[in-house]
Specification:
By secondary structure, the chain is α/β, with parallel strands linked by helices. It has 2 domains: 66 residues, 2-Layer Sandwich (Alpha-Beta Plaits), CATH 3.30.70; 211 residues, 3-Layer(aba) Sandwich (Rossmann fold), CATH 3.40.50. It is 39% helix and 22% strand. A 7-stranded mixed beta sheet has the order 8-7-6-5-9-10-11, sandwiched between helices. It is elongated, with a radius of gyration of 20 Å. The mean pLDDT is 95.
């Protein structure tokens, strides 16, 4: 396998020899100053590589030689804390003075401590009852930011022929605006019920939980005429695990421990454009 080591800063030359030795690898190639590729690396050495990279704030991945981004046909992304830096529901709750309470439920849910996502989401949305819907616009315009490397990653994926899917346990108010802004192909999310300009504290339609996310990935692949093995999924929370298990390459982005442990690749330090440097 190729061992690809990445950093948010230039990789110091002093790291090269220890990494090659730990990887039991062969030829090295500095893709750029922040990326080192080691050929013929032994995946059995993963625990040693994991320990070294964790100590030195490096990200690593074992990748099949010769694999290219264009070998895939779809990149599926979670929204909150993945494509964007915030959890939208937490920021909405801030407008009614309940951010701490809602954030605590969100965190527990994303860590996998709350097994029923539907109940978790329903409880959080109920706390928003009566809030003026203008709060959603404020969150989008004033607080929502793309994660580092997001636009670079999306542009390269599109150039390589991949279609894009934003599939979220969050809300259509945000996914539809991001779809228009970023030129995404497909979106799926929850719809907040709004009556007379105020949130009712309810969502309408089927809740987009872990199994619905996975089903959406499968259905999108069917629509594109590709197997799910030709899809890439990026996520950070436990409700992303099922869709990540469906695909050929799963990437945990600034993710909870349960997600990092299950994913093919974990980016703890680099941006979303780290995906491009794997190939």
């Amino acid at each position: 396998m190729n061992l690809v080591v990445q950093s948010s800063e230039p990789i110091a030359a002093a790291h090269v020899k220890p990494l090659v030795a730990l990887a039991r690898g062969g030829q090295t190639h500095c893709v750029d100053e922040r990326v080192l590729r080691i050929a013929d690396a032994d995946p059995a050495q993963r625990p040693d590589i994991e320990a070294y990279c964790a100590t030195h704030a490096l990200d690593y991945a074992y990748m099949p030689p010769g694999q290219a981004l264009r070998d895939f046909g779809l990149v599926a992304m979670d929204m909150d804390s993945t494509l964007i830096t915030i959890e939208c529901i937490d920021e909405i709750a801030d407008f009614c003075g309940l951010k701490a309470e809602v954030s605590a439920i969100t965190e527990a849910s994303m860590r996998g401590e709350l097994k029923n996502f539907n109940e978790s989401l329903t409880a959080r949305v109920a706390l928003l009852k009566g809030l003026d819907a203008s709060a959603l616009e404020h969150v989008f315009n004033e607080r929502l930011r793309l994660s580092p490397g997001a636009e670079t990653m999306l542009a390269a994926a599109k150039a390589a022929g991949l279609r894009t899917l934003l599939v979220s346990g969050g809300f259509t108010f945000f996914t539809e605006r991001l779809k228009a802004q970023l030129g995404l192909d497909f979106t799926r999310a929850n719809t907040l019920e709004i009556v007379d300009g105020k949130l009712t504290g309810k969502v309408t339609g089927e809740i987009v939980n872990a199994s619905v996310k996975a089903r959406t990935v499968r259905e999108t692949c069917e629509k594109l005429g590709i197997p799910t093995s030709r899809a890439i999924a990026l996520g950070d929370g436990s409700n992303d695990l099922e869709m990540m298990a469906e695909v050929g390459l799963s990437v945990a982005f600034r993710a909870k421990p349960v997600v990092r442990a299950a994913a093919n690749v974990a980016f703890n330090h680099v941006g979303l454009d780290g995906l491009l440097r794997l190939f």
